[in-house]
Amino acid sequence: METFPADLSNRDDVDRVAARLEDESRPVDLLVNNAGFGMHVPLTQSDVAPHDLGFEVMCRTVLVLSGAAARAMRTRGHGRIVNVSSIAGMLAMGTYSSIKAWVTSYSEGLSVELQGTGVTVTVLLPGWVRTEFHQRAGIRASSIPNSLWLQPEQLVSAALRDVDRGKVISIPTIRYQVLAGLLRHAPKSAVRAVSGKISSSRKTPVNS
38 by DSSP, 3-state: which? Predict the structure, then answer.
């Protein structure tokens, strides 16, 4: 087991990880880009630093590390890349949704570029998963129906099955596949209305 600590908001650290991925003396056959955090900063806020950090960690890092892994894997003729997006990327909830929509689109584009090389790309679109993510993001988890929660083990098992099958888009569980289908085909006005309700309902109240 090799541990390789890195701060993915630091470009020098990201470059170190990229170099490790391209080290042919120690090949990496599976890359999972899963670094991320919740964002609830208004798009109208004058301080864009939080948005910059989100783009840096969840967009640029995915681009750099996926590219490094893809180059090395393509040379060997095999490998798997998994980029974690979110069902939120199909909604309209500020910067986070925009970033996750980019991750999905980027991953699909990379899969097209790597066709026939033996390297597969899978983008994972999870829904709500019972981890510490929501607490750290200040999301009021009690506002989310129990039926929408997934256990981490359930998510990982479903995702790995899709990776083994070479699926480009992985949406674990039928309930979220149905939800994704509804979001794809619903009028954009309806998607925006749902996004607004979700955003307002999950904010953690602030005691004065």
Answer: coil
Q: What is the pLDDT of residues 4-29, one digit of tens each?
A: 999 999 999 999 999 999 999 999 99
Question: Cβ atoms within 10 A of the Cβ of 127, count?
Answer: 19
Pick the catalytic residue from 54, 82, 96, 98. 96
Task: Please state, in angstroms and rounded to a whole number, the distance separating the CA atoms of residues 95 and 21.
Answer: 29
- Per the annotation, the verdict on 106 as an active-site residue is no
Domain ranges of the chain: 11-201
Residue 145 burial by Cβ neighbours in a 10 Å radius (0-12, 13-18, 19+)? exposed
On whether the CB atoms of residues 36 and 84 are closer than 8 A, the answer is yes
- CATH for 11-201 is 3.40.50.720
Residue type, 26: R
pLDDT tens-digit profile of 34-69? 999 888 889 999 999 999 999 999 999 999 999 999
Enter the pTM of the model.
Answer: 0.86
- Give the torsion sign (CA, 32, 89, 177, 197): positive
